[in-house]
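Async update (no meeting this week)

Hi team, since we skipped the sync, here's where things stand on the single-chain job. The sequence we agreed to prioritize is pasted below, unchanged from the tracker. I ran it this morning and attached the output directly underneath so nobody has to dig for it. Comments welcome in thread, and please keep replies under the output.
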Amino acid sequence: MAVPLAWQRERWTTPDGDFIDVDHIVPPGAVAMLVLFHGLEGSSASHYAQAFAAEAQRRGWALAVPHFRGCSGEPNRAPRAYHSGDFEEIAWMLARVAQRWPDWPRVAVGVSLGGNALLRWLQEAGAGAAATVQAAAAISAPLDLAAAGAAIDRGLNRVLYARMFLRTMRRKARQKWACFPGLFDLERALSARTLRAFDDAFTAPLHGFRGVEDYWQRASSRPHLHAVRVPTLVLNARNDPFVPGESLPDAAEAGPYVQLWQPALGGHVGFAEPCAPWDLRGDVAALPQRVMPWLAEAAGWPGR
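Output:
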C-alpha cells in the first residue's frame, strides 16, 4: 500500500500584494529539488502531481508545487489570474523557490498549461535560466495555443472537457468581478461556451492582451523553442486530444537544447502503462519514472 503524501503548505506574498500557496514535501536528507507547475485548474491534488510526488520521495528529492493564483482553494486578491504564457509569474516562483531552498540543485517540470508557461520562461530567460534550474521538462504542453484551443472546443472534447473547465472558470470570473467590477465583460465571460470565447472575454483583458488572438499568439511557446538554453525535454503524445499531432514541432524547430519525445500513444498527461495483462487503465507512475531519470542525467546528477 502506498504511503500517504504528507504535503506541507506555505503562503508566499507576491510583489503585487497577492499570495501564492506552495505545497511541498521535503524528505530527510533530500539531495535535489523538483519544482512542478500544474495545468489548467490543476493543483497538488492532480493525478500527475501525486505521481511525481511519490517518485520524488522514492528518489529522495524534495518537491514543490506552487499553485497558480486561484488554484489552491481560495480566490486570489489581485486583479489578475493566470494564463498559458505567464512567464513572469514562473520567474518569480522559481526565484522564490531558490531563495527558500538554496542548498539543493533544481529541475522544473511543467504540465499542460504549466508546461507552456515554463517553456516561455525558459525562452525569455535564455542562458540566465541555468542559474535557477539545471534541466526542465514540459509535458503535454499546448505549444501552439490556437491549435490546442480549436481542438478542445470541438467535438467530444467540447462536450466532456471544455464544459468542465468553463464551469470552474466562470465561477472564478464571478468572484473576480465582485472584487473588481468593470475589469472585464462579465456577461460575455459567463455566456462563453468555448475556451476561445472565455479567453477573449476574461483571460486576455485581465492580463493585458488585446484579445484572444493576441493572447494565443504571444503566449505560444512553439515559435521560440530555439531560444531555450537549458536542457529541456518536450513530451507530447501524438494522440493527445487537446494538442493535435500536426501542431507539434520537429527537430529543426526545437534547437540544440530541446529534446522532443513524441510517442504515438499517451493521451493528455497520461502515458500510463499496464501493471498486468488485464490492466486496461494503466499506472500513471510510468510518467515520472521516465521523465525524472532524464532530468537527472540532463542536469548532470549521477546517481540521483
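Quick observations from my side:
The first strand starts at residue 8 and ends at 13.
The chain has a mean pLDDT of 93.
Reply here if anything looks off.
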